[in-house]
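Deviations from the work plan: none for this task. Representative record:
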Amino acid sequence: MKRRHLLQSLACAPALAGTAFAQPLVAPRRIVAAPAELPVAGQAALPVWAYDAQVPGPVLRYRRGAVLDLELHNRLPDPTTIHWHGIRLPNGMDGVPGLTQDPVAPGASFRYRFALPDAGTYWYHPHLGTSEQVDRGLAGVLIVEDDEPPPVDLDLVWLLDDWRLNAQGRIRDDFYNFHDVAHAGRMGQHLTVNGQPALVQALESGQRVRLRLVNASNARIYALMFEGLPAWLIARDGMPAASAVPWKGELLLGPGMRCDFIIDALRPGRFELRDRFGRGQRSLAALEVRGPERAARPAPRPASYEPLPEPDLAQAMVHALRLGGGAMNREGWPQESTAEREARRLRQQAGSREPTPAWTLNGHAHMSHDRAHASHAAEFRVPRGRSVRLTFDNATAWWHPMHLHGHHFRVLSRNGQALPERPWRDSVLVAPGDRVEVAFVADNPGYWLIHCHVLEHHAGGLGTLFEVQG
Ligand code: C2O
Ligand code: CU
Ligand code: CU
């Protein structure tokens, strides 16, 4: 289908939210979430939770404008859901338990069905017991192909993750411990790409490859380095850059974020993808090129795309979200009454996995996600179609990748410094002390989450929701 026809058929896509699609006889693809033992993170048979017995889950590929129709079967011991991270979809398909759907109980299933309006690199993961379920291995990449993608010889998908293993080589089940929740989140000591500790991808010289990187770590931020071959950044969070940007120096990729590169394998050798966040640096994976040296090629062109609705900054509603609490900070800690705190401690002692509140947005900790998202009042309400300017004001000592459901936003400024290209994103990294302003058109009706994608931070209160009315 040509782009124009596609757009015409997509033009009415939001209106499909409540109605049936006109293809009732096509069976949905099945996806099964279940425990498995797999060769992951350097272990011969690591007990994990997996989609279709794979870690990462299967790469789901669709054409832009296609309908994703997929039935989740839950064979886990716990209830679950799937959230389609970064996709502008109808609210009922967003996978947020207690807010957009009921949890999918063990043994039960749920059918997700929606059109995919934007090409790009996205991913899917549970949104219930998220910190534990994602950490145990439930995460996969969702690719929406553009009609005219930049031509490449190979399309590589690398999902970055880290694993906290105990002395027996099992996943440590200290989920939601207070230290992780109140500090940088759950970090694992074993870094993997597609579940493998030292992935090596063989290439022939002369090949042009697209490399899609997805950060599926609970909490780890990567400062990605790649040297020795020409490489260009062509998209972030699924959305194409205006022009290809040469990859120089460190590229920060927070949890939940994606970036797409084009790399030309021009010369033989071994070229490592390295992480340099914080102290030291380590190798994550490598490209190993064989064959003769080749001449440089012109820079690629990112896919063009139909512009998203442009926020009207002059008429926009203005909201500020102040991030508070966390370790090494006195300001903005959640206020619990003594009775509430005692009740929580008793439940925790009895084995409940609920985290201790440690973070706030505008003074409020958003807790008990798994049961009661809907019990939280909307932080703001906005009539459908209205533009919103949103400021994240990080009054904590920690980094927070702030993610918005159901919409893409433009990043307008950081610490008062305007970003001339105003890039489109679905998540933005907010460094300690930073103030970042974003803007979007609230055109997707329903209740949507805004939260930190350090999964332990969200579990400890760093999230809220807003309502698009109409
Ligand atoms: Cu990957 Cu609520 O998000
Ligand atoms: Cu929440
Ligand atoms: Cu955070």
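The longest strand covers residues 29-38.
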